[in-house]
């Protein structure tokens, strides 16, 4: 029986041993016959499908960070400031000898792994150690990696893990967000035995993540300069002081357009940016009037329409980093395309410009890790040119070669016929 709560691994009354056998049989059919599993949580079935595109069922996660590089990275990471909270709220579980406390960054790299020495020794056998990459593309279905992928707290129980070496473990994880921007900072995880698959552990880990976010919010300085987050989201988030305002689609488009034209735009110009040839200045002026009531007259001027205080923007940060040649930092600051649901001509042009610059910089860098991060994203998964480049840099990566061949065939089939 599937749990009523899709994020919980078991329903009260379930027989864990029988569930392990049932899911294990489904896993073997999926791996050997590519058969979509039935009678399973969709969050797990979907994760298996994502994982299989990158790794085999016997894969071991790679080590991305080690020694001095790891120490410097985690010392500077925002989650280092909330480690005392994690240890206070979840450390008791790790100290009882039955659990491991782990914290990863937004890329799934484990930064801290703490607990009983015996448990840590067992975890090390599958590279569940600081510096290892535990996102789905490198470790398959697992609680911290899948929590990052779906941006939700969840449990992964025993044979629900995609990688066979991990299937004797059960884990519960929750994502943690930057309170100012809403972007993922990483995840908090508790890993142990089958007894961990219960509602209390999920609630405790989720509460710990919320406590960490609340603490970070208190540390965030109040800035006079407003900020706009519009990457990877259909509705822009405006932050001004301690206030956070989520704007509707049209107001999001208008605000983004105004941030890119500090000199101001007329109503007619904004109408073209929003509607193209189907110009409707009256509608635009009405929307601007409503936006002015939201922002306040102290922020939005008219005649021409312009922002009195030029806000910081997440897409501006990405382009600034690219301009300084900091491709890795630009990619880390990029959660997705600009207002991806918008078809306004002005937004589409800006979105394509940002994506093209970032993609070109990744291609020029020739760095396997940067290419891999782009290809693991929904917007980069079908990028044949970058798959070809990545495959050339990683000739032993059979999954990359397979994906390159698949896309080559797919694109060849979609090329329209030409006639003399």
Roughly how much helix do the residues carry, as a percent range? 40-55%
Proportion of residues in extended strands: 5-15%
Biggest sheet features: 5 strands, antiparallel
**Low-pLDDT segments, ≥5 res:** none
Total number of domains: 2
Which of globular, elongated, flat, extended, rod-shaped describes the shape?
Answer: globular
Helix-and-strand structural type: alpha+beta
Q: What is the ordering of alpha helices and beta strands? A: HHHHEEHHHEEEHEEEHHHEEEHHHHHH
Mean pLDDT: 88
Widest sheet: strand ordering: 2-1-5-4-3
CATH topology label of the largest domain: Beta-Lactamase
CATH C-level name of the largest domain: Alpha Beta
Organism: Actinoplanes palleronii
Protein name: Transcriptional regulator
InterPro entries: GAF-like_dom_sf
